[in-house]
Amino acid sequence: MPTKLRVHPDFLTxxxxxSTGRIPQKVLFLxxxxxxxxxxxxxxxxxxxxxxxxxxxxxxDAGVVRRQSASGSSTSSAPDYYQTKPELFPxxxxxxxxxxxxxxxxxxxxxxxxxxxxxxxxxxxxQGNTDNGNIYQLMGQLSHYFPNPDGFGVDEYxxxxxxxxxxxxxxxxxxxxxxxxxxxxxxxxxxxLNHTTGVEGVPQVTFEGDLAFLNNYKNPLGAEIxxxxxxxxxxxxxxxxxxxxxxxxxxxxxxxxxxTTTQDRMLQSAEYFMAGFFGLGWTDNATLVLNIxxxxxxxxxxxxxxxxxxxxNKYTNTAGTNATNLWASIYLKDAQARLNASSPAFNWTxxxxxxxxxxxxxxxxxxxxxSFCNLFTYQEWEGYExxxxxxxxxxxxxQSPTGRAVGIGFVQExxxxxxxxxxxxxxxxxxxxxxxxxxxxxxDQSLNFFFSHDTNIMAILTAFGFTQFAPVLPDTYMPxxxxxxxxxxxxxxxxxxxxxxxxxxxxxxxxxxxxxxxxGPPTTYIxxxxxxxxxxxxxxxxxxxxxxxxxxxxxxFLEVQSASLAEAEYEYSCFGxxxxxxxxxxxxGVPLTNETYTA
Length: 599
Fold this sequence. Notes:
- This protein is an alpha/beta fold.
- The protein is 36% helix and 8% strand.
- The protein is built from 16 helices and eight strands.
- The longest helix is centred in the first third of the chain and has 47 residues, at 25-71.
- The protein is globular and about 75 Å long.
- The N and C termini lie far apart (88 Å).
């Protein structure tokens, strides 16, 4: 066994033995001492190499930290609103089962021409679909992103010669996600599992016919975080906006500031958008500022304004829910009977039946295909879309007592950006720490990107005062035409683009006969685009005029919006003690009466 070199405790004091003709002890000692010295030198050299490598590693890590700090990541000294890793308030983040569409996709379907999935399977035959309709565009806020197919009542026009887009403020919804914790879809999943697992593994029900797939059903869904196609939606949106507005980025080494929230799906949506717009090195081009979102209302957050508006989460704001329940009892009556016929022991309630439609939508974006979807007729899917429309109208828009109040903070921020001033005093949900500082609320950017939620964006449209969506929708039948269609306004990945346009002189609002500049000074206009279709300002704001292109002079628009904060009645709407009325009583997004609240 080889001997380990070591210094014996008695090495220097032990008496030298008499010479016996072997190597003299003195020579041996000198040899050992020399070897020891060589090892010490090697150790020192190795240590220096290690120290240099460690120093390089520290330098690299520090560089990463600096880059992430600039783009919104954690350092020991960076404010919380820059921290993206680790996430501070991400919310629930359980992931679901990975999709396996290559194995589970039943396509091609009988009597249909095969078309490859892109990436979701959308060729499912639906009873009653006689006009080549698409049920996946009838799923309200749970619809995978698609551009508004119908528009908002005006034609689209190209930018006239000599006009210039000088600023874009974009508000985007996050991408497709798993169900929120405790939502109806998750409740139905648990009821199914309870019945198929049963007591001691003995199922309590056997599903038959179209429901037979439930006999071996396992929960495939996570909660709240983005699904793969949700990431794609935001990346694609970033690419689209690069093509549309890339010229507005100065590309001079400076960074723009964009804003999202700390919730995981919100943060990742912003990051995927930035990657689409700038590329994978987007942190060299943009800094993310994060509004803290944790549901407590402790932190002001205009991108989740309902958290700072307690009444929006109480019984006082359930008119939309009540209207949806009434309508569901009408349009789902036959569907409930069909489901019970295939599994009488399960006892499909009206709520279960409605939740099955929601579960179809969630599984579709998570897995690419869901067997729940073809359980319903095309007319029942039209009914589902309408149920979401009246729900949003009554809970988040003009039939809600907090409709304007929830969105007013963001509206005030847009007014400030368009007017080039910071916000220095507490106003609604506004985070003054961020908005009174041009580092986190820059006034000189030509590109401003914000990321929010569906109901919050609906409230923002309400707070702006888009009264074209204010007419009360009946809750016992579906009208032939109506303007508030949630899948056209707030699908996953929805985006509201606000363009600021400068022209050399006033532009004639009659565009159908061509472009005609009028006598006068250079003029600045604002143009709203929701899901790639013009959202005209004239129908809601008469002083803007009924222009063919839907534009409004910016000065006129700002004058109209100067009254928006008072109209929202934020303090009373959010904190007042008032009575909840029936659906349809409220028509302007604020409570009917100012009963007992004292500011």
